[in-house]
UniProtKB/TrEMBL annotation:
Protein name: CheW-like protein
PANTHER family cross-referenced by the UniProt entry: CHEMOTAXIS PROTEIN CHEW, CHEMOTAXIS SENSOR HISTIDINE KINASE-RELATED
Stored SUPFAM superfamilies: CheW-like
Cross-referenced InterPro entries: CheW, CheW-like_dom_sf, CheW-lke_dom
Pfam families: CheW
CheW-like domain sequence ranges: 1-133
Swiss-Prot/TrEMBL GO biological process terms: chemotaxis; signal transduction
GO terms under cellular component: cytosol
Signal peptide start-end: none
């Protein structure tokens, strides 16, 4: 997102999907992009860049999402792109700083180093805590 690379622990990832037939919900939080039917199941879709206030340039298009399991619920996290799976040796992960590019350190698990790149490892469970999921559920129902 933006000019940074982010990572989500693979243990939380159910699948990576192409976004289609996204249904927007009126009067929902700005980061709640809508809902989508995934094999007969309604999945809430969250625009991660909006939730984390990551600046974007140009037209915003929703193409891919990472479906994660948070608090027992499937949630689609809309991302700019999905690059690949990266394994970080434990000694290549540094503790989170107070903030990175305006993102609160409470949403960051650590900073991984891969080759000459730094990758921000985000805490999806904190970003999409129970309160947010309940509120999104109220918008859907």
């Amino acid at each position: 997102m933006g000019d940074e690379e982010y990572a989500i622990p693979i243990s939380l990832v159910d699948e990576i999907i192409k976004i289609h037939n996204l249904i927007r919900i009126p009067k929902a939080k700005t980061y709640f992009a809508g809902i989508m039917d995934i094999r007969g199941k309604v999945v809430k879709m969250v625009d991660l860049a909006v939730k984390l206030t990551v600046p974007r340039e140009g037209e915003i298009t929703y193409d891919r999402a990472i479906v994660v399991k948070v608090s027992g619920q499937s949630v689609g996290i809309i991302v700019d792109k999905v690059a690949n799976v990266v394994l970080f040796p434990p000694d290549s992960i540094n503790p989170p700083p107070p903030s990175v590019k305006g993102i609160s350190g409470r949403y960051i698990t650590g900073i991984g180093k891969k080759d000459d790149r730094f990758i921000i490892i985000i805490d999806v469970e904190k970003i999409l805590g129970t309160e947010e999921l309940t509120e999104l559920g109220n918008n859907v129902g």
